[in-house]
Specification:
alpha/beta, serine acetyltransferase, domain 1, UDP N-Acetylglucosamine Acyltransferase, domain 1, 2 domains, 6-stranded mixed β-sheet, 5-stranded parallel β-sheet, 15 strands, 15% strand
């Protein structure tokens, strides 16, 4: 993500406009966006401010986030796709700036991306610490060893739990109170594998080392205990296939009702 990327220009332009429209937020917008030269810098400041605590104060966190983003540009590239996903899928989101500043699912996922980076470099104690802060502050609990693709939206996000060996492909949308969990005390590969383009409705529980096929849709409140075919529409407790998805990519359409 370069300093002068189109996305960063869009965010800065909107922040400048909002300063004129709402002077009460001018200081906030300068601190979080306009005082920064890149999305990396803005993200480092924003996340550090939110996750600040006595054990790891904001300045230490900001340096950690900044170093991570500088060391691995793929994280910021993934973040940019996550912002675009929120902007295109969430009707409440009116700008890229809004996604950056006010979407706590995005904040949790971006901070998790740093925790995952730390985990991969065997800095596991710090990764666990960051996981805990994310859980406390955002009410989202994602194990740092999990694998998550790009263009992912955690909508509302409160109560989302994603286990250690879970994998999530690109372009997935997950709503609040979803669990991608195990089925007991087994060890090893024990969590779900979510295919690209999947939509997981609020309150759904997907348990065990099972596969959710690409572009499937899981209806609100469903409990999934077995593999799900590509493009399947699942509902119930335990869930059954009640049809096929009605669009090419459920995660993009975000349609919560079905025929």
């Amino acid at each position: 993500m370069t300093t002068y990327s189109p996305l960063w220009h869009s965010i800065r332009d909107t922040a400048t406009q909002e300063c004129s429209r709402e002077p009460a937020l001018a200081s906030f917008l300068h601190n979080t966006v306009l005082n920064h030269e890149s999305l990396c810098s803005a993200l480092s400041y924003l996340l550090a401010d939110k996750l600040d605590c006595q054990a790891l104060p904001a300045l230490t966190l900001q340096e950690m986030f900044s170093n991570t983003f500088c060391d691995d540009s793929s994280i910021t590239d993934a973040v940019a796709l996550d912002i675009e996903a929120i902007f295109s899928r969430d009707p409440v989101c009116q700008s890229h700036l809004q996604a950056l500043l006010f979407n706590k699912g995005f904040h949790a996922l971006t901070a998790w991306r740093v925790a995952h980076w730390l985990w991969q470099r065997d800095r596991k104690a710090l990764a666990y610490f960051l996981q805990n802060r994310i859980s406390v502050v955002f009410a989202v609990d994602i194990h740092p060893a999990a694998s998550i693709g790009t263009g992912v939206m955690l909508d509302h996000a409160t109560g989302i739990v994603i286990g250690e060996t879970a994998t999530i492909a690109d372009d997935v949308s997950i709503l609040q109170d979803v669990t991608l969990g195990g089925t007991g005390k087994e060890t090893g590969d024990r969590h779900p594998k979510i295919g690209a383009g999947v939509l997981i409705g609020p309150g759904s529980k997907i348990l065990g080392n099972i596969r959710i096929g690409r572009c499937a849709q899981i209806a609100a409140g469903s409990v999934i205990l077995k593999d799900v075919a590509d493009c399947a529409l699942m509902a119930g407790v335990p869930a059954k296939q009640i049809g096929n998805t009605e669009c090419a990519k459920p995660s993009a359409e975000m349609r919560q009702t079905f025929s």
